[in-house]
């Protein structure tokens, strides 16, 4: 992939809400992150923006089969009651559906960030 700047962002269990079509997102709560140092300063300003529809970064996603997924995702930040969350959205449900033989409710996954030609990408890895 010729990826650079590889960082473990989070290790988490997939919950039912991460697999629902009506939710269409992967939640990554700040209080569970391994690092929050995977964004550039410009990217951080975008996702922290208070302007809806302008606080998304388009990202590519490497799936558990080690292939780049054909559809792009968006990364954004959502405030919650007790913490903030980074959220992968837009096409998440389709990604999950296409990989559901690997990504089951209750599965433990890792989300890694990396750069490919300076563009932010993520990889989803299943943990045994």
UniProtKB/TrEMBL annotation:
Pfam families in UniProt: At2g31720-like (PF03754)
Entry GO CC: nucleus
Domain of life: Eukaryota
Molecular function per GO: DNA binding
Signal sequence region: none
Coiled coil: none
InterPro entries: At2g31720-like (IPR005508), DNA-bd_pseudobarrel_sf (IPR015300)
Sorted UniProt keywords: DNA-binding, Nucleus, Transcription, Transcription regulation
Keyword Zinc: no
PANTHER family on file: B3 DOMAIN PLANT PROTEIN-RELATED (PTHR31541), TF-B3 DOMAIN-CONTAINING PROTEIN (PTHR31541:SF60)
Protein name per UniProt: DNA-binding pseudobarrel domain superfamily
Species the sequence originates in: Helianthus annuus
Classification lineage: Eukaryota, Viridiplantae, Streptophyta, Embryophyta, Tracheophyta
């Amino acid at each position: 992939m010729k990826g650079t700047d590889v960082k473990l962002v989070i290790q988490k269990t997939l919950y039912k809400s991460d697999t629902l079509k009506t939710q269409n997102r992967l939640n990554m709560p700040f209080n569970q992150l391994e690092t929050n140092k995977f964004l550039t300063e410009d990217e951080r300003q975008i996702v922290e923006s208070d302007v809806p529809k302008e606080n998304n970064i388009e990202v590519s996603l490497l799936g558990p089969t080690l292939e780049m997924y054909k559809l792009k995702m968006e990364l954004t930040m959502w405030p919650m009651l007790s913490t903030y969350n980074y959220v992968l959205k837009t096409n998440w449900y389709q990604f999950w559906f296409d990989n559901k033989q690997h990504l089951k409710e209750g599965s433990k996954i890792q989300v890694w960030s990396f750069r490919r030609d300076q563009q932010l990408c993520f990889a989803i890895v299943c943990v045994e």
